[in-house]
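Case study 2.
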Amino acid sequence: MHATHPYDALAPEIILDAVETFGLRCTGALLALNSYENRVYRVGIEDADPVVVKFYRPHRWTDAAILEEHAFTRMLADHEIPAVAPTVHADGRTLCEHVGFRFALFPWARGRAPELNTAADRKLLGRYMGRLHRLGQAESFQHRITLSIEEFGTSSVALIEKTDFVPKDLRDSYFRTTEMLLPLVKEVFAEVSDVAWIRLHGDCHLGNVLWGVDGPILVDFDDCLAGPAMQDLWMLLSGEREDMESDLADYLAGYVEFMDFEPAELRLIEPLRTLRLLRYSAWLASRWDDPAFPRTFPWFTSQRYWEEQILALKQQLALLNEAPLAWRPRYD
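Prediction:
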């Protein structure tokens, strides 16, 4: 049995009542969307398009950090970059509160999962990322986190080490591997210390990109942060090395139309991938008291998961010692 979690009190009537504080009339149609860090729902509205309501995880972000996220996405939308920004309440707020829950309302973005099968589609997404980063470098976040080895790597390993999630017979292998990885990551970060840290989406995998009638739509800026431009690009790459280099050239062909790209950032791809692997496991461990997590990620406590993590991290040891991806610029 799990102890009571704050989200246990988030009943359907509370969700609908919160939406109606915006002067909308709900139909009662309510669909939970694929989000675990927060609770996110599509809500039907009478005589209008549905809306999305996000209830922020208690105690995760300060109000100032959430408002900074909102201001960033609204700035992007104002510059016609397709980011889904929060709706402004009649009283001027974007971050609201209802019976103890902080929430925000968003328009429903119509789109499908992106396939990005063509160079033209990849170039189009690259253009928008370049425009986003150009605005992102204009000023700095004051309340969002900064991507760092300490925040994403060292702290993640320390958190996992304090738990019993790693099976006893695998603990030595897992933590010895992380002990070898983190110094290598630090070496690479030191090599590219001149790279600028700018405002980013922060979690720009394809699950956070929709494809609408006019192209890409960027959603879920909940993890926006300050970091290197590559943090918003590397998660778009997959497959064999040749495939990744080809796709990267397409993205950057659009990107450099609006934003300079520093080739030294290519060295960061594998370090950033390493940090994400560590942070993901730590994230699951830190959220295990939320009943949604054991229910959704039951494999996290399995022997197989940790064996696969050790294998993935050992592969990162090899990749960190390989030459970075090559960028062969393409010009139309």
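The CA atoms of residues 167 and 303 lie 7 Å apart.
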